[in-house]
Amino acid sequence: MDIFKPIQIFADFITYKCFYIMPHSYWGDTINFFIYDTIKIGLLLIVINYVMAIIRYYFPMEKVRDLLVKRRWFGLDYLLAALLGVITPFCSCSSIPLFIGFLGAGIPIGVTFAFLICSPLVNESSLYLFPAMFGMKVTVLYNVIGILVSVAGGVLIQKLHVEKYVKTELLKVKSRAQVEIDYGGVPLSFVQKISYFWKEGMGITKQIFPYMLLGVGAGALIHGFVPRDLVERYFSAKTWWSIPLVTLLGAPFYANSVSVIPVMEALVGKGVPIGTALTFMTSIVTISIPEALILKKVMKWQLLAIFFGITIAGIMIMGYILNAIF
Fold first, then answer.
1. Number of other residues whose CB lies within 10 A of the CB of residue 264
2. What is the C-alpha to C-alpha distance for residues 93 and 36, in angstroms, rounded to an integer?
3. What's the predicted TM-score (pTM) here?
4. Model confidence over 52-82: pLDDT tens digits?
5. Residue 239, exposed/middle/buried by CB under 10 A (0-12, 13-18, 19+)?
6. What is the three-state SS of the chain?
């Protein structure tokens, strides 16, 4: 069941019935994409930031931080964050609200990045569609490599101590006791809690929303005006540089994995190596110009460069391994 289907129906109605734009035209695809993703990601921002405000208020984050920092089983927290990314059906831009919530709640930065990398990388397509399309061996290997890349990326970012490159306003989280002090030193009433959660959630949402609009706008233009056959001609080369090339070609695009499946299936059907095709899909759903525009509000360019560098390296390693085996 597609929970976002009503949004798509609304976007289709506005684009094709109200604006009278021809379906499947360049402008039609661009405007439809913009309306759909603006509403979808905007709602995700509001809901997730509201939920995270509730979690920050009730959850003993100090104990959680101590547990994660003083963990006995190295890497378990990164693995759990990556597995959370597996079960969340988000594209890269849709994952950002939850990523922001993790940062605001005080979860270690490496753990949050393990989630951010894995959420679009290992997704509903790689779990449910790949077995029928490419076989179980490709499916298992892709998903295992994707989780390992996410965990390794999170560990590396944590080791680099890049917290100073995160926008500090997102990390200023009040404890429950501090909130109650602001309200006169007494427990908040139900109405006060609802008001406080909404204020906290909307505070972060308002900071991110303008950048989200810029990101979705860039993605909509790319989605509508860049023809698919522009990249197909470069994919069949079976040389070492084909993997870096398709990674860079896929990065400017923006789409979720399901929408890229028809393109990827057509590429494989034309003889494009499976690793090359999957590299292209992965670069589209994991790294993109819209994602960079939104993340720029959350982090400084140094951390943004580190994140994209690690992710691109992981994507290319995955492509080389798949091409070598299959």
1. 25
2. 13
3. 0.67
4. 678 767 765 556 556 555 555 566 788 888 8
5. exposed
6. CCCCHHHHHHHHHHHHHHCCCCCCCHHHHHHHHHHHHHHHHHHHHHHHHHHHHHHHHHCCHHHHHHHHHCCCCCCHHHHHHHHHHHHCCCCHHHHHHHHHHHHHCCCCHHHHHHHHHHHHHCCHHHHHHHHHHHCHHHHHHHHHHHHHHHHHHHHHHHHCCCHHHECHHHCCCCCHHHHHHHCCCCCCCHHHHHHHHHHHHHHHHHHHHHHHHHHHHHHHHHHHHCCCHHHHCCCCCCCCCHHHHHHHHHCCCCCCHHHHHHHHHHHHHCCCCHHHHHHHHHHHHHCCHHHHHHHHHHECHHHHHHHHHHHHHHHHHHHHHHHHHC
For 135-152, letters b (16+ CB in 10 Å) and e give eeebbebbbebbbbbbbb
The helix-helix angle for 26-58 and 5-12 (nearest 10°) equals 140
The per-residue pLDDT for range 223-250, each reduced to its tens digit, is 666 665 655 566 666 678 888 888 887 7
pLDDT along the chain (326 residues), means of 10: 82 92 87 87 77 71 57 71 72 67 76 85 70 81 90 91 77 63 76 86 76 70 64 65 84 64 66 83 78 78 88 89 87
